[in-house]
């Protein structure tokens, strides 16, 4: 069996509807998961909603409904977003599921059995918006005497009886982990930030709450619910069958397994400090990598409900197209850096790359075949050096450059390579001028068209993880067999049998109609 590959997004707080930042994370993760499947890997891709905690309880109370009713409603919007954006997750987890409560209680008991939990009194600062405890030394002064967390959210003084996790015991073990697995935290900026934090010393972590009851019950401690991050992080194990399904665990959460968490930069501390410490304590395998992507800004500004600049991903998809939005987000933003979006930037990228560079190339070539060869696929009559040069370049791009970039979680680098190959095809068609060859050398015209047809199909296969629906529609139209649409079968060997069959190529419809801006876009 092929080597398992586990990849997850963060699970989102369903205290409101999904925004473009949520869409960005799940689209990037989807592209990577699709790529790994095309490499023949046994992929498990999980996403979902993080439904417990004070933030959910307070939002529900403000709306006069039960937290579960809020979670039911909002979780539905996250699911609907994933459907709309063509997300290929294998599991959508909700932390209110019974199986997840069992998994959270099991990891709690394992940490307790290891001697890492004790009961005490918590006195300190808490941010409901971040669902996070902070040390006094991390805080800054906001307006009106309000203290602010490093994320800029207000904190409140909290005093209550609480279970604690001996995080202070894990400082050396965590530093040893970062040292022996330098890629555990990526990108480097995030790694350095975490190194500094852990080197600065770790306090024990308050991991239960008594002031509200919306959460996973602490086993054997009436009145305590787990701190939301304990149960939230455990979602990754629940999806992998913990604690009862040993076979599933061995497959997707094994020692040395290929396990990647894709999350935003604001929650790296939870994933790169608390999570490995919990797992070490419970004597469970660790993930291979935690990747903290950047934030998406609206025209360079932080999105916020009060400013009213929070973009709805469904609206953007309706207006510009799902694949246009996916392509924009993955090509525009270097994964790991912050990025900006605006209507102009989406329109510009889509029209120039998808429309002009790739769509027109396919359109010109396929219409030419449909019209001049009555749809019969052209035969190859020997190759010129120009043909081999184009094939070599595409081969390098689709077999080496793109897979290397995707495996390295760098979709924008993969797309750059892809675009370079599309430009090379455009130069080839202009230089070879099949419209002239039609009169002067019809055999050479056929070879040129066959070369382009193969190149276009290879580029369509290679870009499937990024724009799955459009690329598949093009491959369907071109008659490329489904079993050839993988990175390993991307060579041209499928072409001759297809050209010799009675397949007739119809005139294509434009794949990426030109997008226009409106006055409202400013
Ligand atoms: O943090 N741009 O949930 P969440 C890019 N429940 N990514 C963004 C973003 C933006 N503007 N805003 C948020 C939580 N994100 C926890 C996670 S995991 C065990 C629990 C990212 O709904 C954010 O960084 O606030 C996170 O990775 C994800 O969206 C969900 O954020």
From TrEMBL:
<dbReference type="InterPro" id="IPR009080">
    <property type="entry name" value="tRNAsynth_Ia_anticodon-bd"/>
</dbReference>
<keyword id="KW-0648">Protein biosynthesis</keyword>
<keyword id="KW-0547">Nucleotide-binding</keyword>
<keyword id="KW-0436">Ligase</keyword>
<dbReference type="InterPro" id="IPR041872">
    <property type="entry name" value="Anticodon_Met"/>
</dbReference>
<comment type="similarity">
    <text>Belongs to the class-I aminoacyl-tRNA synthetase family. MetG type 2B subfamily.</text>
</comment>
<dbReference type="GO" id="GO:0005524">
    <property type="term" value="F:ATP binding"/>
</dbReference>
<protein>
    <recommendedName>
        <fullName>Methionine--tRNA ligase</fullName>
        <ecNumber>6.1.1.10</ecNumber>
    </recommendedName>
</protein>
<feature type="short sequence motif" description="'HIGH' region">
    <location>
        <begin position="12"/>
        <end position="22"/>
    </location>
</feature>
<comment type="function">
    <text>Is required not only for elongation of protein synthesis but also for the initiation of all mRNA translation through initiator tRNA(fMet) aminoacylation.</text>
</comment>
<dbReference type="InterPro" id="IPR014729">
    <property type="entry name" value="Rossmann-like_a/b/a_fold"/>
</dbReference>
<keyword id="KW-0963">Cytoplasm</keyword>
<dbReference type="InterPro" id="IPR001412">
    <property type="entry name" value="aa-tRNA-synth_I_CS"/>
</dbReference>
<feature type="domain" description="Methionyl/Leucyl tRNA synthetase">
    <location>
        <begin position="6"/>
        <end position="366"/>
    </location>
</feature>
<feature type="transmembrane region" description="Helical">
    <location>
        <begin position="452"/>
        <end position="475"/>
    </location>
</feature>
<feature type="domain" description="Methionyl-tRNA synthetase anticodon-binding">
    <location>
        <begin position="419"/>
        <end position="485"/>
    </location>
</feature>
<dbReference type="InterPro" id="IPR033911">
    <property type="entry name" value="MetRS_core"/>
</dbReference>
<keyword id="KW-0472">Membrane</keyword>
<dbReference type="GO" id="GO:0006431">
    <property type="term" value="P:methionyl-tRNA aminoacylation"/>
</dbReference>
<keyword id="KW-0067">ATP-binding</keyword>
<keyword id="KW-0812">Transmembrane</keyword>
<dbReference type="InterPro" id="IPR014758">
    <property type="entry name" value="Met-tRNA_synth"/>
</dbReference>
<comment type="subunit">
    <text>Monomer.</text>
</comment>
<dbReference type="Pfam" id="PF19303">
    <property type="entry name" value="Anticodon_3"/>
</dbReference>
<feature type="short sequence motif" description="'KMSKS' region">
    <location>
        <begin position="302"/>
        <end position="306"/>
    </location>
</feature>
<dbReference type="GO" id="GO:0005737">
    <property type="term" value="C:cytoplasm"/>
</dbReference>
<keyword id="KW-0030">Aminoacyl-tRNA synthetase</keyword>
<keyword id="KW-1133">Transmembrane helix</keyword>
<dbReference type="InterPro" id="IPR015413">
    <property type="entry name" value="Methionyl/Leucyl_tRNA_Synth"/>
</dbReference>
<dbReference type="Pfam" id="PF09334">
    <property type="entry name" value="tRNA-synt_1g"/>
</dbReference>
<dbReference type="GO" id="GO:0004825">
    <property type="term" value="F:methionine-tRNA ligase activity"/>
</dbReference>
<dbReference type="InterPro" id="IPR023457">
    <property type="entry name" value="Met-tRNA_synth_2"/>
</dbReference>
